[in-house]
Amino acid sequence: VTIKNIERELICPACKELFTHPLILPCQHSICHKCVKELLLTLDDSFNDVGSDNSNQSSPRLRLPSPSMDKIDRISRPGWKRCSLTPRTTTFPCPGCEHDVDLGERGINGLFRNFTLETIVERYRQAARAATAIMCDLCKPPPQESTKSCMDCSASYCNECFKIYHPWGTAKAQHEYVGPTTNFRPKILMCPEHETERINMYCELCRRPVCHLCKLGGNHSNHRVTTMSSAYKTLKEKLSKDIDYLIGKESQVKSQISELNLLMKETECNGERAKEEAITHFEKLYEILDERKSSVLKAIDTSKKLRLDKFQTQVEEYQGLLENSGLVGYAQEVLKETDQSCFVQTAKQLHFRIQKATESLKSFRPAAQTSFEDYVVNTSKQTELLGELSFFSSGIEAPEINEEQSKVYNNALINWHHPEKDKADSYVLEYRKINRDEEMLPWNEIEVCGTSKVISDLESNCNYAFRVRAYKGSISSPCSRELVLHTPPAPVFNFLFDDKCGYNNERLLLNLKRDRVESRAGFNLLLAAERIQVGYYTSLDYIIGDVGITKGKHFWAFRVESYSYLVKAGVASSDKLQEWLRSPRDAVSPRYEQDSGHDSGSEDACFDSSQPFTLVTIGMKKVFIPKSATSANEPENRVLPMPTSIGIFLDHDKGRVAFYDMDHMKCLYERQVDCSHTMYPAFALMGSGGVQLEEPVTAKYLEYQGDM
Question: Which protein family is it in (predicted)?
Answer without folding.
Answer: Belongs to the TRIM/RBCC family.
